[in-house]
């Protein structure tokens, strides 16, 4: 006997991203043929109105579908959120309440995301800022963007960092771009490479400062020595 290998679709869990969840949930309920009762609700007959047997059967069938749809909502939505929904008499009540609560917050998140995109666009390394500090600032904004729904690949962040370093890293950027596949370069690898070059530059700068200081001291000592010699000559 042939077996049915059809896999039942999973109930979409609400994860805070309302637009995505509502699309999945609507499609799920449509596949179960419960969407009409969620969208339209149950119209109870006016008080005292007599129903025919077919009408009674249809009403009971709609109520049963409504109960099943509610059961799916109870599984899809965390208890902490369900407790904030005051009216849960029908599946339509729950659906409408979720829409009112979370569709507005989606607009707020969109506005915040736009602001973060602008911050990311103008982000640049400051003079004297360390590689560690700048990478941390970049990742902070990137993670906030991802939290607000931005689909951002690591390569986008890698390219942003390479484009926005200070001019003293120009030759380092050229070296990295020529020797590595940027699309395959991880953030950790990039930061490691930049740190190595930063340490080399810091050591070189320290050596130059020490050499300059030594040269200045030597010049100063020679000048004082010549001054003392001229003084003794005038006194003789």
From TrEMBL:
Q: Give the highest taxon in the source lineage.
A: Eukaryota
The name on file for this protein is Retrovirus-related Pol polyprotein from transposon TNT 1-94
In this chain, composition skew of type Basic residues spans 225-236
Where exactly are the transmembrane stretches of this chain? none
UniProt source species? Eucalyptus globulus (Tasmanian blue gum)
Q: Which Pfam families does the record match to this protein? A: Retrotran_gag_2
Taxonomic lineage from the root: Eukaryota, Viridiplantae, Streptophyta, Embryophyta, Tracheophyta
Question: In what ranges is there compositional bias, type Polar residues?
Answer: 202-223
UniProt-annotated stretches for the region Disordered: 201-236
């Amino acid at each position: 006997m042939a077996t049915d290998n059809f896999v039942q679709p999973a109930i979409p869990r609400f994860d805070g991203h309302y637009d995505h969840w509502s699309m999945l949930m609507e499609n799920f309920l449509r596949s179960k043929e419960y969407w009409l009762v969620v969208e339209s609700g149950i119209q109870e007959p006016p008080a005292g109105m007599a129903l025919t047997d077919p009408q009674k059967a249809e009403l009971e069938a709609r109520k049963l579908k409504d109960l099943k749809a509610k059961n799916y909502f109870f599984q899809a939505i965390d208890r902490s959120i369900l407790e904030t929904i005051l009216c849960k008499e029908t599946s339509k009540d729950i659906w409408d309440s979720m829409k009112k609560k979370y569709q507005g917050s989606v607009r707020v998140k969109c506005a915040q995301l736009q602001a973060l995109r602008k911050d990311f666009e103008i982000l640049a390394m400051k003079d004297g800022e360390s590689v560690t500090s700048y990478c941390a600032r970049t990742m902070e904004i990137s993670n906030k963007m991802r939290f607000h729904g931005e689909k951002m690949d690591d390569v986008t962040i890698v390219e942003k960092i390479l484009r926005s370093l200070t001019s003293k890293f120009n030759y380092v950027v050229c070296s990295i771009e020529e020797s590595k596949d940027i699309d395959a370069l991880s953030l950790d690898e990039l930061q490691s490479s930049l740190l190595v070059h930063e340490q080399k530059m810091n050591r070189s700068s320290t050596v130059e400062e020490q050499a300059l200081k030594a040269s200045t001291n030597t010049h100063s000592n020679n000048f004082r020595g010549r001054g003392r010699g001229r003084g003794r000559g005038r006194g003789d």
